[in-house]
């Protein structure tokens, strides 16, 4: 049975109002990276999804008040040094704070030192995907004629398919039931067998280094899946593409089609006749969903799609190369970045806080409204997604950020409007924590972020 999943609905939030009035209220969620702070299933139920934002490209930064007082760099730096000195962070902390309007650096403590970003890493792939494919891009899942009387279900990168009724209220907007209905009409009573074609991606399904608890938070990376690879009990299936094929075969039977044999794998013949297709939500909304709930599988799939767009191998290694190359072409200095995956599951990922801040600032660029989904999708403090239960004080409603949590690393990257109305870009990464120390480090970072929101800091 498909789980009920709601889209995010508009809310009157200060920071979000500045970001294209793109604020959303969402259901509860947990930071989807394994660690001592994970207290909810890998994907919340119901899960949030943003409304489509097609055509929303109003100027962003001009909406800010340029006369709002700029915080004092000395004051912001002093506040940041208190965080670094806080024993809860372990001292291995990197922080960058910049003014969103002028790009002036207000604090930089070890900002160029590579550190483990945890799920803040997802911002890199999100921006790369929006740049490579465009915010209006949709992912097509098709049914085509195979050899003999075979119907081949071809994965196009949409792993948010539903086997229930499709609508804008459903994550992904695309339904295998709809695809089966259209396919049945095209078959016109023909008896068929069903196969799946998941050859869009290559290489292993799991990144080198993933294992143990990691596999409780990500599916084997394939270009076709229902519900990001989760079954009705919230467990990851062993073969998401084949499970989607089985659901498609069942949906064909429900439409009166005689389906024979087991679902198998087969590559669609070149030039095969398309019987039917369904389309995902626009990419900007897929990105927003990924960032709001920190969805690891979607993050990895998006990076593979960047690899395909740029002529790289659609493997973990090719995806990492493609994301870094795409960001470098956008002017981001990626020389100190090491990617072991693109979801942030591995401690081997190394990204300077300055790069996280640069990527966030790039998504705010008024000249690049196509990248804006990487910031409008960030959850709002105390109200939604991975920040729903955090920062209920001064930062509530005026801070949007990508969270990151591992057992030995914590991060927070995003935007905050201070007490004088100035919008600031920030990135904080604390790593090399003692096992079990992430909760205290995260509390310290939240207190720092709240102080930054409350501070005029003149």
Automatic annotation (TrEMBL):
Keyword set, alphabetical order: Carboxypeptidase, Hydrolase, Protease, Signal
Superkingdom, natural source: Bacteria
InterPro entries: Beta-lactam/transpept-like, Peptidase_S13
One Pfam family cited in the UniProt record for this chain: Peptidase_S13
Enzyme Commission (EC) number: 3.4.16.4
SUPFAM superfamilies attached to this UniProt entry: beta-lactamase/transpeptidase-like (SSF56601)
Top-level EC class: hydrolase
Molecular function (Gene Ontology), one example: serine-type D-Ala-D-Ala carboxypeptidase activity
Signal peptide (from-to): 1-26
Recorded family membership: Belongs to the peptidase S13 family.
The name this protein goes by in its record: D-alanyl-D-alanine carboxypeptidase/D-alanyl-D-alanine-endopeptidase
Organism: Georgenia wutianyii
Gene: dacB
